[in-house]
Amino acid sequence: MSDEVPSQDEQSFLAEYRKKVYPRPSVTVDLVMFSMVDTDLKVLLIRRGAPPWKGTWALPGGFVDVGDAFENQGEDLADAAARELAEETGLAKEILANNRVHLEQLYTFGRAYRDPRTRVISVAYVALVPPQLVPLVRAGSDAAAVRWFSMREEISHFVRPGENADGDALAFDHHEILDMAVARVRGKIDYTSIACALVPPTFTFAELREVYEAVKGDTFDSSNFRRKFDRMVVDGIIEQAPGKRTPGTLGGRPAFVYRFRP
Amino acid sequence: MSDEVPSQDEQSFLAEYRKKVYPRPSVTVDLVMFSMVDTDLKVLLIRRGAPPWKGTWALPGGFVDVGDAFENQGEDLADAAARELAEETGLAKEILANNRVHLEQLYTFGRAYRDPRTRVISVAYVALVPPQLVPLVRAGSDAAAVRWFSMREEISHFVRPGENADGDALAFDHHEILDMAVARVRGKIDYTSIACALVPPTFTFAELREVYEAVKGDTFDSSNFRRKFDRMVVDGIIEQAPGKRTPGTLGGRPAFVYRFRP
DNA sequence: TAAATAGTGTCTATAAGACATTATCTC
DNA sequence: GAGATAATGTCTTATAGACACTATTTA
Predict the structure, then answer these.
(1) Does A123 lie at the interface with B, CB-CB under 8 angstroms?
(2) d(CA A118, CA A115)
(3) What's the N-to-C CA distance of chain A in angstroms?
(4) What residue ranges in chain B does DSSP mark as E strands?
(5) Does A18 touch chain B if contact means CB atoms closer than 8 Å?
(6) pLDDT tens, residue by residue, B36-77
(7) A176 and A124 in contact (C-beta within 8 Å)?
(8) Are strands A26-37 and A120-128 parallel, antiparallel or unpaired?
(9) Which of B70, B108, B116 minimises the CB distance to A77?
(10) What is the mean pLDDT of residues A135-163?
(11) According to the model, what pLDDT value does residue A9 have?
(12) Closest protein residue to C4 using CA and C1' atoms?
């Protein structure tokens, strides 16, 4: 080896670099998928068909495809989340393309030993699924079953790890992820229009209000909520659609119908 | 092999699992460290001493230690961020322990090919560094230099990738990370007390107002801002400290001094 | 007409912006 | 006293909660 060190350009550095391999974590995306059924906020859980936590309810998710990690670096994180969403629900691409699903990154959970298999760092995403897709969801390949759980009635019965109580727990640290997801949606519903991702393509004032009430876990005064609703109309977020919709079975004044503005 | 499949318990599954190895990404933490110097919001950048992007300014950061990824799963993400903060600034543990630094996870950036070396997924953290630590920061081992850049005067001169203009760019996708960090702090300063992480241990009304003005990039009416300030006092977030502080060089009425409540 | 749901009007309390005024220091 | 900065007072407007009221449908 000569004393003269050749100026190592980035090309040759790259070739060198790829020879060294340090231990790396696995990276997954986990999905907190919310939707509305009747007047309830629901979250989609899968029953795990394989260890670890076999047989327990968990958030859907899967590994991010990173190709060979060098020449082919694989898929983006948001693409991985969208792919998992399609796979775990069995919803076809065309259906998802025609029914806009709100998808946003939530937080990254990477505590050591959160997965016994190996170091797993999980990037969690929140998905808001329009309610017309709920009946179409089927168990994907990895899961023994999928089910929509009521946040109000059912999720509260799951215990958190460390709570010395009866009842089932969610797999891994998924209760923590779910808690943060609810907090995110609750926070953002006040100053964004994400609620619109949880109503059908056309909806009434009352239907939008039900979304707010389900998310916030509280009731909204009809008159005051209409101020918020009217602001959305004048701001051009929503607009009136043709026709009216007759409420419940026992009569009542038909309501105007609205839709999103594209 | 017999027809009878032994019921595979989680223990044996684990042993099996570890034999298989799929390609994995590298995971890093990147830090957006903000502080105040005079009346300016500053961000700490390092000049990269090694390829890729050698010689360009970048956010400090480094790889997450994942141990061997199996029996030893390494450090938590927040611990990695805290460790990098200490390493890149040269600040001793004791100093950091005595000067509370606000550290929160921002977002995870994982676009394919964002790093030419290999697939790198970066968990970005925002750190708010109290101003008394600014003079103590020295270049860490990995960096050729560190410098606090004024968000108002200097960062605006860096171009974003794709902008066909003169001027330097930040390394990787760090401009995107920085943009999101500013947006996060700007948003949270309104409804949290994070501004308190950017003032000295004792501070005046005017000093806290300067933090708000630097973060928001706007001026605040003194009288109206005092309402916010008074609310923090009655809410018990801050309290009056003994003594007064004489302002600028040319006289003026001395101001009351405040501190955080523990 | 009763029950049910949709939609309107109004009073009040709170918070925020604009701006005028008083107070206390140094030189 | 002049200049400088700190602290207070007040008027107006915007927004949110509480609640009373009117409107339109079915059975």
Answers:
(1) yes
(2) 6
(3) 66
(4) 26-37, 40-48, 57-58, 61-63, 102-109, 120-128, 143-150, 202-203, 238-245, 255-260
(5) yes
(6) 999 999 999 999 988 899 999 999 999 999 999 999 999 999
(7) no
(8) parallel
(9) B108
(10) 88
(11) 61
(12) A252
Q: What is the pLDDT of residue B16?
A: 62
Task: Check whether A7 has a pLDDT greater than 90.
Answer: no
Is the CB of residue B145 less than 8 Å from the CB of residue B46? yes
Can you tell me the distance from the alpha carbon of A63 to that of B256, in angstroms, rounded to the nearest whole number? 56
Closest chain B residue to the Cα of A16, Cα to Cα: B117
A178, with CB counted inside 10 A (0-12, 13-18, 19+), is buried
Q: What is the dihedral of CA B161, B167, B170, B171, to 10 degrees?
A: 80
DSSP B253: -
> If pLDDT is split at 50, 70 and 90, which confidence band does A2 have?
very low
CA of A222 to C1' of C20 (A): 41
Q: Which nucleotide is nearest to A220 (CA to C1')?
A: D17
E strand segments, chain A: 26-37, 40-48, 57-58, 61-63, 102-109, 120-128, 143-150, 202-203, 238-245, 255-260
d(CA A191, CA A211): 15
At A154-185, the pLDDT tens digits run: 999 999 887 777 778 999 999 999 999 999 99
pTM of the model: 0.92
